[in-house]
What we know:
Strand content: 15-25%
Order of helices and strands: EHEHEHEHEHEHEHEHEHEHEHEEHHH
Number of strands: 13
CATH topology of the largest domain: Rossmann fold
Strand order of the largest sheet: 3-2-1-4-5-6-7
Oligomer: single chain
Largest sheet: 7 strands, parallel
Distance between the termini: 8 Å
Helix content: 40-55%
CATH architecture of the largest domain: 3-Layer(aba) Sandwich
Amino acid sequence: MKILHILWSGEIGGAQKAVYQLIKEQIRATELNIQPAVIFGKAEGLYYEKIKETGCEVIDANLKKEGNIYKLLKTINLMKPFDIHHFHSAELLFGFASLFCNVKRVYSHRGGIYEYPLKQLLRYKFFGLLLKHYFDKLSGNTIHACKSAAMLFKIPENMWEIIYNGLDFQLFIPSKPIQEVRTQLSLANSKFIIATAAQIRKWKRIDLLLNACLLIKDLDFILIIIGDGPEKVNLENLATKLGIINNVIFVGKQNNIADFLQLANVFVLPSLPLESFGNACVEAMAMGIPAIVMSDGGGLIEHIINGKNGFIVQNVEEMAGRLRQLYSEPSLGKIMGQNAREYVREKYTISRMLKNYYNLYNSIA
Length: 365
């Protein structure tokens, strides 16, 4: 079974990471007789390099500029030799090229609810027509993703199959001893550590976390923010304005976020409903860290059993209250962290994701 996975680029992102892990497992599971390949519109980025390292066939469609008829014809020829085209993003040129290939088509939605600008909305409208008439199976990586896709493409929710991301838990092993990282950050062992990790954009709402930290300023804590992005400078300015800059450490983008997550007593990701899955949250939970998310946090709330492996909060004040509670009751944090570890390591396995996609492919092959 020759599967062509379709992505725009290999830049850091949840879809790219999920596809990379799926491809690795498809190559490893030789008994399933799946031969994966991936085609990029723009062959660059971390996951482009990582996918190449797996030995998987990688195709560069070189669509960095607007498409034209020549590029369409070239892309058709690149996509023809496969049995199934598995789209992981709504790429119109790839979609039209696929129509000229005698294949089955699968689309996996990995986004939440968002108010798109008109040009992008029109692109999704046209892609939705392709999905309705020419695709054989539709899936989403959370319940929230399926609901969001149903709204975006005007396709009934019951047409979308839920296939959760699978995570390689062997990747969540720190490369540095915890004391070395503490020394690097000049942290005392007694500090209560709050962590978050994200591409720092407005919709991640890290500003809410900073405002919650202001309400617990009397406590002995440090907030570690892992990642980079266009909102980083604004967050630094906000932390200074709130008078908590000495409680906040920006460590930037990291190759192994587990090095810093191992310090954490709690992980907080206050994202908007645009968040479909939230890999960073699940990764932290897999390491035994309880998580706090917002009640309007999209797919993030699907990872939380409120009060057992984390907290779902309504506002900044409740977030601050839960942080204060975990600070005051370290034993509660340990119990919830263990529950978090067990929950996600059972629910989000690579083998389960592989099996679900294999069954999906077989249902249309």
